[in-house]
User: What shape does this take?
Amino acid sequence: MVQHIAVYFTAFTLLLTAVSAATGYHNHTVGGTAGWFFNSTTNTPSTNYSSWAASQTFNLGDYLIFNTNSNQTVIQTYNETTYLNCTADNSDNGTFIYDSGSSRFGEALTVPVPLTIVGPNYFFSDAGVDSVQCSRGMAFEINVDRGLGLPPSLNQPPPPPYVEPPDPDTDTQSPPVTVAQPPNGGGAFGRRANVRLAVYGFAAAMLLLQ
Ligand SMILES: *[C@@H]1O[C@H](CO)[C@@H](O)[C@H](O)[C@H]1NC(C)=O
Ligand SMILES: *[C@@H]1O[C@H](CO)[C@@H](O)[C@H](O)[C@H]1NC(C)=O
Ligand SMILES: *[C@@H]1O[C@H](CO)[C@@H](O)[C@H](O)[C@H]1NC(C)=O
Ligand SMILES: *[C@@H]1O[C@H](CO)[C@@H](O)[C@H](O)[C@H]1NC(C)=O
Ligand SMILES: *[C@@H]1O[C@H](CO)[C@@H](O)[C@H](O)[C@H]1NC(C)=O
Ligand SMILES: *[C@@H]1O[C@H](CO)[C@@H](O)[C@H](O)[C@H]1NC(C)=O
Ligand SMILES: *[C@@H]1O[C@H](CO)[C@@H](O)[C@H](O)[C@H]1NC(C)=O
Assistant: This one.
């Protein structure tokens, strides 16, 4: 009898463990310890992001956490054409740009991106002349499963986007900026101008460096 109880208890514990593992929402650190970086000397991404993505399982309500700096961009799209062409088109409602508004190179950033739509989601960095980062492999596709469905925190009308105010006195030692975003990425194009500035600034720097 005691043995039976022990067996039931063990089975129950294993079941609880399995259920909680399957029911949690997960944060996936993009690229693992390599982060989301492009080496402009070797012209290569810091890791193979497709391989990284293939090692993960993604569900609604999970977040991708991009540990990066302002030398890269984070573009999310549901449009395969946009992804394959490495260009963010602001007339397309399925493309979102996550950026801090920073115009300085190398400022540390943490960009959390919630997964809110089932199916293929595509990510890339369009930084560099002719989106060189994307065309050199800084891009990946994931497939998002339903899992538990969206948690209430992501299933509501989005708050207005928050933009970190620029601080001209900070240097590159400043702490990482977290880019706050509405869950569905709404309003991302309101700050398109910042992205253009950053991209043109980057292009100008690349020309000077040549
Ligand atoms: C995942 O990241 C989001 C956004 O940064 C955060 O609000 C949430 O607490 C994180 N969840 C876990 C389990 O770390
Ligand atoms: C880029 O790659 C070069 C050559 O491997 C290396 O020396 C340099 O430290 C790398 N730069 C960064 C920022 O990781
Ligand atoms: C990255 O890994 C994928 C397989 O996950 C492979 O098909 C691809 O060729 C790799 N890319 C590079 C640049 O090595
Ligand atoms: C995807 O983007 C292309 C190029 O911008 C556009 O022509 C097409 O209509 C978009 N598709 C969808 C489903 O939005
Ligand atoms: C593809 O990218 C080029 C620039 O690299 C751009 O001129 C063209 O409009 C883009 N096409 C689509 C369908 O987005
Ligand atoms: C874009 O708009 C179309 C038509 O209004 C809609 O069917 C589609 O779901 C939207 N896509 C996204 C990603 O919001
Ligand atoms: C950012 O890019 C600029 C221009 O290419 C480069 O000089 C700088 O070293 C980069 N910074 C980091 C932290 O990668």
The chain has one domain: 25-209.
